[in-house]
C-alpha cells in the first residue's frame, strides 16, 4: 500500500529520532522502548540504510507527535523570549543540582512549547504530559516507557525498576507538565519516586494556577502527601508573569511581539497582531491562529 505521508515529514521524523537518541544516556535497547521501534530498525536508521516499507505510516505519525515534529507546511520558529530563557535556566539548574522546582503561571505563555524544545536538546531529560496520564497506573507506565523501561508486569515491580533505573542514568531530569491534572494517588507516587532518587534526579513540575490551588488546598486540609511534595519541590511556586496591570500588559506586549516577529518579520503586521491579542486579553495560542490566517 502506497504511503500517504510526505517524504519530507518522514525525513524529519528520522532526523528527530537521531537527535533524540543522542540525548538519551541509556542503551539502544532501552531507547527502542521509548519510541516503540525495534533495534533492527533503529540500526538501519543510525546507519542511514534504506527504510522503505520498514516503518508504518502510523508509526511515523506516532513518533513524530512524540518527538514534536511539525506536520504543518509552516514551521513555527522558536523564539528566545523571557519565558524560554527563564525555563531554560530553571531546567539547567534542576538538572545540574538534582533539585526540584514548581512553575505555575498563566496558560498560553509558551511553557509547554519551551520546555519540550529545551528538553529535546538536553541529555537524559524526560518530558511527561500528565494530562494524558492522570491515574497512578497510567502515570507510572508512561514514566517507565519514557525513561526506557518495559512498563509491563506488576505495578510494584515497575515502580522499583523506575527508582533504580533513574539512579543509574547520568543527571536525569523529569519534567511533569500539566501536573495539576494528576489524581491524588499519582501525586503520592511522585513523592515515593522522589524520596528514592534524592540527589540523583532533578524534577520540574509545571502547570497553571490550578496546580497551585490544588497543592495549597491539599496542605490546608492536611491531606497526606501535599506538604511533603511542596517541601521536596523547594517550598516555592515559581512564576514568570508579573503582577499589576501595567506590568502584565508590558510583559504580554513584548512576549507576543517577539514571537510574532520571528514568524512573519513584518513590523506593520506584528503591531496589528499585538493589538488584536492585547485588546482581547489573548495569549500565544490566539496569536498562532492569527498568524496561520495571515500566512494563508
Short structural summary:
57% of the residues lie in helices and 8% in strands. The chain has 296 residues and is an alpha/beta fold.
Structural account:
- There is one protein chain.
- The chain has 14 helices and five strands.
- The chain has 296 residues and is of the alpha/beta class.
- The protein has a five-stranded parallel beta sheet with strand order 2-3-4-1-5, sandwiched between helices.
Helix and strand string, N-terminal first? HHHHHEHEHHEHEHHEHHH
What are the segments in which pLDDT stays under 50 over at least 5 consecutive residues? none
Tally of DSSP helical segments: 14
Terminal residue distance: 32 Å
Strand arrangement across the biggest beta sheet = 2-3-4-1-5
Largest sheet: 5 strands, parallel
The shape is flat
What's the overall average pLDDT, rounded? Answer: 93
Rg from Cα: 20 Å
> Care to count the β-strands?
5
Q: Give the fraction of residues assigned to helices.
A: 55-70%
Helix-strand category: alpha/beta
Beta fraction: 5-15%
Keywords for this entry:
296 residues, alpha/beta, 5-stranded parallel sheet, flat
